[in-house]
Structures are given as structure tokens and as C-alpha cells.
Specification:
The protein is mainly alpha-helical. The protein is built from 12 helices and no strands. It is 81% helix and 0% strand. Helix 1 (2-18) runs antiparallel to helix 2 (23-34), helix 3 runs antiparallel to helix 10 (197-208) and helix 9 (165-192) runs parallel beside helix 12. It is globular. Belongs to the arsenical resistance-3 (ACR3) (TC 2.A.59) family.
Amino acid sequence: MLNWVLGPALMFALAWALLPDLPEYRTGLIIVGLARCIAMVLVCNDLACGDREAAAVLVALNSISQVIAFGALGWFYLEVLPGRLGLSQAALAVSAWDIAGYTLVFLGIPLAAGYASRKLGERRRGRDWYERRFLPKIGPIALYGLLFTIVILFALQGHTIGQRPWDVARIALPLLAYFALMWDGSFLAGQAIGLPYDRTATLAFTAAGNNFELAIAVAVGVFGVTSGQALAGVVGPLVEVPVLVALVYVSLWGRRLFKEPAHAR
């Protein structure tokens, strides 16, 4: 519910409230809100001493759900809901099938490749080799790819950024509000319903995190590499990474709010 109901709805509301006059950036942020957490959250969850197994399960479920539902949600939040709410906007030539197609390519293929590599690797060389030798070598490739994409997009958008830095700041504002509301709300909710600290930390980070790689890929594929939607997607990880790292410290500080289990005393 936090990931697929509250998260997209909150980003939609923030984007419309804070960027009513910037439809391209607003659309880019809504796409970001639809792309739910994946690998980056696992790193922050580990640093915050969260439940590693629960985080892995939630990330896997989010990845599969995005392949199935991302196109329909994009169509709903970009075309259907604004019209139902009477929100005026320029007509968007957004096809749910186009969004779904890019999602399938940029997320479905890596998921299938990861599944196949694990099956084949463990069958031929064993789990120990796969997890200790293979994964550490191939793991950084995704990070390098994201950094390369961000650098290229910023190079292409350099003129826009230089001419309108205030627009970039305005893109960052709803993102900051989103992370604060999603993380704080989820952390306090977990503590209120009696979850242990590790599960609460996992809940908070998986609820607040987003799959910016997918958001950037969809924005570039649907709207173009120099579009405002693509720029909004690029600003996303530049805000998310430092914010989530800062929230790791907040999470560790908040650990004192939880009672230690008897076996840990």
C-alpha cells in the first residue's frame, strides 16, 4: 500500500501543488513517483541495520510489479486523474503501451538476465562462487551506467540548467518533501504498530526510495533526451542519494525509540 498507493499519490499531489506552471517537470516527477524502490534501497537498508531479507523481498516484489503495472499507472496519473480532478494541463501524447514497452525493455530484460545468470551460475559453479566472485564484479556496472547517463543528460541539458537554475531548485523541492513525508511517516507508523527496529527501518527506506534508473529511461524514451521530463528524472538521484544517506543517520538515532528484544539484552 505504501509503495503502490500512497507513494504515487503523494508525488502526484506534490508535483501539482509545487509545479503547477511547469508541466514537463511535473510530468517527470510523477513518473519518478511511479518508479518504486530497487537496489539503492538495499544499500541504505544495510547501513541502517534494517532487515536484509525483508528488503530483498520487497525490492523483488516492486520490480515485478513495475513490469506489470507501470504503464497502466502512468496512463492513470498522467491522463485520467488530472481530467477527473479538473486540473488544466496541456494535452499529453502519453500511451500506456509506450510506457509499458519501455518498462519491459529497461526493467524486464535486466530482471530476466539476473534470474538466468543466477540459475546458470549456481548450477555450474555453485552459490558461493556466484555470490562471492561473480556478483561483486558485475554489481558496479549498474552504478556506472547510471552515472554515465546522468553525466550525458546533464551535458545535453547544460544550457537549460545554466539559464534556469531556479527551475532545478523547484524540481528538488517536491522531491525533498516527498522523501521527508514518506520516510518519516513510514518510520513512525512502523514504530506505532509495534514493528521491531529492523523491520521499521526496512519499511521506511523501501517506502521512500525510487527507481530513478527506470524513471529516467521511460522519460527519455517517451519524451526525448532533452525534455523537461528527462531533466526532472536526472535531478531525482542527485537529491535522493544524499537524502537517503542522511536518513540512515536519522534511522540509527531513532533506534533508541525501540525496545530491544529480550535475546539482544
